[in-house]
């Protein structure tokens, strides 16, 4: 399976609102799609990915977690993490 980048968020989360434009920038620069998932509406993912806070970004390669970032991550760091697995 190819590279997947998941961003878990929840409504009314200030950090999530801050992360969203960073994700769009990284999508354009790295040529990847970052899938946004509402963690509150999908409680099964909270346990599956051991989520503690939002935003949380997970980089998966072949369904294996390669990187996990809790809280807001800046575009340079996220882009670098994504490019490691392209």
Overview of this protein structure:
- By secondary structure, the protein is of the alpha+beta class.
- The protein has a single domain (3-83), classed as Glutaredoxin, CATH 3.40.30.10.
- It has helices at 14-30, 43-48, 75-83; strands at residues 3-9, 34-38, 56-61, 64-70.
- Helix 1 (14-30) links the parallel strand 1 and strand 2.
Features:
single chain, 86 residues, alpha+beta, Glutaredoxin, 3 helices, 4 strands
Ends distance: 12 Å
- Into which percentage range does the β-strand content fall? 25-35%
Which secondary-structure class do the elements indicate?
alpha+beta
Q: If you consult CATH, what is the topology?
A: Glutaredoxin
The largest sheet is:
4 strands, mixed
Q: Can you write the helix and strand succession as a string?
A: EHEHEEH
Q: Short description, anyone?
A:
By secondary structure, this protein is an alpha+beta fold. It has a single domain, classed as Glutaredoxin, CATH 3.40.30.
List the helices and strands and how they pair.
Blueprint: E1 3-9, H1 14-30, E2 34-38, H2 43-48, E3 56-61, E4 64-70, H3 75-83
């Amino acid at each position: 399976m190819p590279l997947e980048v998941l961003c878990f968020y929840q409504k009314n989360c200030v950090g999530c609102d801050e992360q969203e434009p960073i994700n769009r920038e990284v999508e354009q620069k790295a040529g990847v799609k970052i899938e946004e998932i509402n963690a509150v509406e999908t409680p099964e993912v909270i346990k599956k990915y051991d989520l503690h806070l939002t935003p949380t970004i997970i980089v998966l390669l072949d369904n294996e977690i390669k990187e996990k970032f809790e809280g807001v991550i800046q575009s340079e760091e996220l882009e670098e993490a994504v490019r490691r697995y392209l």
